[in-house]
Fold these 2 entries.
Entry 1:
Amino acid sequence: MTLVSYLSPSRESGRQKAAAKSRTRRLLPRQNIFGQRALGPVLVLAAWWISTSLGWISPGKLPGPIAVYEAFLGTINDGTLATDLAISLQRTGLGIAIGIAAGSLLAVLSGLSRLGDSIIDGNVQVKRAIPNLALIPLFIIWLGIGESMKIVIIALGVMIPIYINMHAALTSIDRRFVELGQTVSLSRSKFLRDIVVPASLPGFFTGLRLGVTAAWTALVVVETVNATSGVGFMITQARTYGQTELVLLGLVIYGVLGFTSDAIVRYVERKVLSWR
């Protein structure tokens, strides 16, 4: 056997491996570009500015970004926006905290116990089928039109997606991990820490992303129903007086808050689940 014939198979194998690696790089998604998720909103903003500046859309129906920015400065100067925004953030923060605690607790009780699953899961599925908007009249009767009703509605909107996704993650834990824990005689606390918590975190963060979005959706609803403060109240008042630029300002604020909160959750998820 000559040296050339001896080396040719290895060369061919090397070429095949390089070609396969190149195909894999093409098939896999490219690395994220910094700020790429803001590209879509920026393009929408540019289209909005161009269409209003060129007169394609009547300013009476859709004021341009400059008019909205001037309205923003006006509300900053008179202090109304800071007050309304602080109240909205407080409501949402309390609702998200309560929803996370309730959803996680119910998911653990239902996902790790057959009795808990029998009692809890059916009731949560029934609530899942009932929109929060349909519950507002009932909660107004029970809790009045104050802060308690608003926070409970927001918390329910957060609780359901967290429960659904955590419950799915817990009930799909690889049985081999459970058997391994039994083999090495893990205590219940170590079993929860080393097996249950890591297995439930991906579902928790998926539910949290959906829950945070649901929290802002619920906030929009509760702040336009018998509210006396908040960004939604500002929108309602602006609609009454025909101040379209303030209505758009409120919608932009809701959009920015939703986009920012989702980005924060994604960042925390990447850090916590870096082992994935």
Entry 2:
Amino acid sequence: MRILVTGASGFVGGAFLRRHAARDDLTLWGTGRRATDLPGYVRCDLSRPFDLPFRPDVVIHAAARSSPWGTRAQYQAQNIDATAHVIAFCKRHGLPRLIYLSSSSVFYREAHQLGLREDSPIGPDFVNRYAQTKYAGEQLVRAYPGEHVVVRPRAVFGVGDTVLFPRILEAARRGALPRFVGQDRPVIGDLVQIDTLSDYLLRIATMPRPAQSYNLTNAEPVDLQALLLDVLARLDLPPPTRRVRIGTALRAATVAEWLWRGLRLRDEPPITRFGVGVFAYSKTFDPARMLADLGPPSVSLTEGIEAFVAWQRAQWMQ
């Protein structure tokens, strides 16, 4: 089987190619904006019409602007236009199966949401531009005339992570990480370990008849604040001592976002409503369809945390 992975210079796409590189039953290609040493890799800007010298059986479209902050034009180019150009490439190259990496954030509201399923309501309002444009990409993929599958990973973490834990750990190292208070219950959330996600993606690529959408998690909801404190302790980082009420944090984030947009500042605000919401609202997913079709996670949450902590320690020692 011949598989093309977009976003191969990023966390998810690169991890997929490295995990399955040794398989002799696969031919793997990748494309992305940055240079890498991955075999079969071609640099390419998907925000413009493109072509590649490949005729894949499957395209895994993992390229995206995954930051929770950016301009409307950046999200349009990297999440919507890029998806349209990938679909155009697929139409010219034999209608391969198209697997689109959307985001679990398309479901999110500023409220607790438990047991979300693949057919749970989406929109019309979204928590940020990232979620809005990922869902716009879903709608484009739904109209693709070839086989297509939408996957929505929840909070991807693991070795090579550049988005989820590193930001939190850097804030902890600076003593800038608050401890949110004011909830009437622990905030519970799902995560998905990167190797588990990579194995699920390969299963979807190779199985005879996948469903048209999957929510992908490790099927192990956890108390997010307790998990964070455990990771900080393992890395010998100080626990947060500054206590901030959720309502106060959300108001501060609203002001920060308003200022950053009004002043057109390029960097990300120090606090966003989406970032606060991660520790303010429980988000869990019903794994029934995933487990029935794809099987149990290949790497447990405990194994994934241990591997991540060991990798993070090694990074800091270099």
